[in-house]
Amino acid sequence: MSVITTERLRLRPLTDADTDWWVRLHADEEVNRFVGGYTQEQAAARLHEIQQQWDRRGHGLCAVELRSTGQVVGRCGLNWWEQFGETEIGWTFARAHWGRGYATEAARAVLAWGFGVLRLQQITAMIHHDNTASSAVAQRLGFTRLREDTVLGRPCTVHALARDEFSSP
Ligand SMILES: CC(C)(COP(=O)(O)OP(=O)(O)OC[C@H]1O[C@@H](n2cnc3c(N)ncnc32)[C@H](O)[C@@H]1OP(=O)(O)O)[C@@H](O)C(=O)NCCC(=O)NCCS
């Protein structure tokens, strides 16, 4: 994948060059409540892992930009979890850009790519029980509850969507 475009958004693979922006995105208390914050070093390490995943598996997390201005407003993409043997979709947007449907729009395009091009059978979404905004995104996309689990020491509900349950945008 080089880029994915939707009506309002452009998704491109994240690289080391996004480290400063990644730190700023997660520094906001409302944004990091369920996903945690990052020091510069932690962000550099995470971005390095993301780049490796793109190289090794052909998928990873993307920066989401507004097509109208080129501004980076969030991140969305696929993450392979070795410990679960599952591919998860993630979505995190800067606070100023919530409530506009960007997360759902970006996620629909990522799911269409994951199911249609990568031919994945199932994609999960691991969401803390109290994260109502994220659970609402999952519900809008057709995800259903699969199991309770723990990810990075935090409890979560694992939601899942199968390829034949997904209606392409
Ligand atoms: C999770 C998160 C991405 C959800 O963001 P969001 O803006 O609520 O979700 P969407 O982008 O899908 O937007 C949906 C909202 O936009 C509204 N909206 C406005 N214009 C819209 C449009 N043109 N199209 C669609 N929806 C629109 C919808 O009505 C909905 O509002 P509501 O929540 O009041 O019902 C955001 O809360 C976030 O970044 N949280 C912090 C990080 C995090 O926890 N990530 C998830 C970890 S599991």
From TrEMBL:
Keywords: Transferase. Residues 9-157 form the N-acetyltransferase domain. It comes from the Bacteria. GO terms for molecular function: acyltransferase activity, transferring groups other than amino-acyl groups. This is GNAT family N-acetyltransferase.
